[in-house]
Amino acid sequence: MAIGTLLIANRGEIAVRINRAARELGIGVVQAHSQADSESLAVRLADRAVEIGPPQAAKSYLNIDAILAAAKACGADAVHPGYGFLAENADFADAVEAAGLVFIGPKGDTIRRLGDKVAARRLAAEAGVPTVPGSEGRVDDLDAARTVVEQIGFPVMIKAAAGGGGRGIRVLTDHEELDRLVPQAAAEALSAFGDGGLYIEKLIGEARHVEVQVLGDGDRVVHCYERECSLQRRRQKVWEEAPAATVPNDVREALCGSAVALAQHVGYRGAGTLEYLYEDASRAFYFIEMNTRIQVEHPVTELVTGIDLVREMILVAGGEPLRLRQEDIHIHGHAIECRINAEDPSNGFAPCPGIVDGLTVPGGPGVRFDTLLYPGYEIPPFYDSLLGKLIVWDESRARALRRMTRALIELEVSGVKTTKPLHLALAADAAVQTASFHTKFLEQWLEAGNASLLQEEGGGS
Amino acid sequence: MSKQILSPLPGTFYRRPAPDKPPYKDEGDKVSQGDVVGLVEVMKTFHEVKADFGGKVVKFLVDNEGAIMAGQPIVEIDE
Predict the structure, then answer these.
(1) B32 and chain A: CB distance < 8 Å anywhere?
(2) Which one of A145, A173, A202 terminates a domain?
(3) Which of B9, B19, B67 is nearest residue A56 as measured by Cβ atoms?
(4) Does the CB of B11 have a partner CB in chain A at under 8 Å?
(5) What would the pLDDT profile of A126-156 be if each residue is shown by its tens digit?
(6) Does residue A293 have an active-site annotation?
(7) Contact A279, A132 (CB under 8 A)
(8) Would you call B45 and A54 a contact, using CB atoms and an 8 Å cutoff?
């Protein structure tokens, strides 16, 4: 069914991004918003806005009944969940379809199967995709955990089988920690997710985070190559690139082929991302999990492939077969994204909500700034700190780094502190310039005293 | 004489350290300087609100999980 009116059940920069894709397709846009977001850019750019509840996400952007009522009230025939909030909530996807609306994403059942880490690992094995050595299934008690660790050895990571977003993960290095932390993790998982099941896997040292973008129509799947997202703080990505500079071409083909195999195996529909750990020395890659939604860092893939991923996911959800053939998708040049957060990097990344009293957006060739900001906007304290994503493209990684530095210097956000100084320092760092990093690099870099580089000149950023 | 503890930050106010834990303080409880009286969630990070003077809790002025502004009174304390 062709979509006429789309309800955006999200906020911030991704709501603006979805709005733009929808309008370019001639689709009407209704923006669902909390009381705190009535002056947001996404609301201003929408054809219509519907308030769905108080500022707290639990009472608005996570309120399924309020969102469905809004969709009905404004005659929407589709719902885009964005990322975060309800984007990977299988019950929400089912409820949207049960209400006779199109959910812009995979089927609820696909979300459910891939959202359970144990089930996802089993699906990967069925599709011939390598995974990190670990428990074959759920681990429900300490004895079972001990048995797994005897087979794979320390160090290991434990995660909630039903968890997500990098939260609640613990690293265990010896038996004392195992005995102490496994019962604690199980109790926490039970209280947070209603399921005390754990999952154990071998900790791969100094690996990169590499992920593969896929698009499917429920029948056929293509990949749009990989992104490298190793620069993370507290398991949250801060800097992303496409392609992954150190992955050799033959490995790239095998990696991306494995992502297609798994997505094809589950009959994937929509945009999705398969996350892997990658070791430079062994050239080995291990599947970790699949995110069944559009991701924050999707623009770097868009800039190197020329594909509008949000447009494609809307078209596929509307019932069109996938237009892209694998042989038509190529990587051209290099793209980098820096997440501009309302955080003060010189003060422990303290959050900085407040009023943006000045904004200069960088321009020129190969520069894109996906943002929720406008001059005079008051950043609410209720949601995450992402203000925008500065994305650059150039013909090579070295040139893209120089372009990023130039664009960061042009970017000015006054009134609040941002992570701009962090990105300027990273772009100038010798290890970053040679892509010599891994998932622990940024935290070690900050601990090594580089945070002193992050003092900014003047009051703004 | 009663005094108020103000929220240092804007965000969401919580009276408990976790949903399954008891509140930090109830009305009628004794408060010492430095005691935690609540949490404020700002952009997904949590900050403890501590009493800068002692006394007895008269009344909470913000509901649990209520939205608050910086400088808004959270709790009234009888010195």
Answers:
(1) no
(2) A202
(3) B67
(4) yes
(5) 999 999 888 887 898 899 999 999 989 899 9
(6) yes
(7) no
(8) no
User: In which domain, by residue range, is B8 found?
Assistant: 2-78
Please report the ipTM that was assigned to this predicted complex.
0.86
Q: Do B42 and A353 touch (CB under 8 A)?
A: yes
- The answer to whether residue B1 neighbours chain A at the CB level (below 8 Å) is no
Question: What b/e string do you get for A135-156 counting C-beta neighbours within 10 Å, with b at 16 or more?
Answer: beebbeeeebbeebbeebeeeb
Q: How far is residue A64 from each of residues A46, A94, A275, A383, B76, measured CA to CA in Å?
A: 21, 11, 28, 18, 36
Task: For residues A322 and A31, give the distance between their C-alpha atoms in angstroms, rounded to a whole number.
Answer: 27
- How many other CB atoms sit within 10 Å of the CB of residue A238? 22
Cβ partners under 8 Å of residue A246, min gap 6: A208, A228, A280, A435
How far apart CA A316 and CA A263 sit, in angstroms, is: 15
- Say whether residue A58 is in contact with chain B using an 8 A CB cutoff: yes
Nearest to A225 by CA among A311, A296, A329: A329
Taking the mean position of all CA atoms in its chain, how far away is CA A380? 21
CATH of the domain at B16: 2.40.50.100
Query: CB B42 to CB A381 under 8 A?
Result: yes
The model's confidence at residue A458, banded by pLDDT at 50, 70 and 90, is very low
- The residue of chain A nearest to residue B10, with distances taken between CA atoms, is A381
The residue out of A171, A186, A202 marking a domain boundary is A202
* Closest CA in chain A for residue B12: A382
pLDDT at A169 (0 to 100):
84
Which one from A293, A339, A368, A403 is the annotated catalytic residue? A293
List the single residue in B with minimal CA-CA distance to A57.
Answer: B12
d(CA A146, CA A248): 37
What total of structural domains would you count in chain A?
3
Summarised one tens digit per residue, pLDDT across range B41-76 is: 999 899 999 999 999 999 999 999 999 999 999 999
Total count of domains within chain B: 1
Residue A191 sits at the chain B interface (C-beta within 8 Å) = yes
Q: Which residues of B touch A382 (CB under 8 A)?
A: 11-12, 41, 43, 67
- Domain span holding position A82: 5-104
pLDDT digits (tens, 9 = 90+) for A44-63: 999 999 999 999 999 999 99
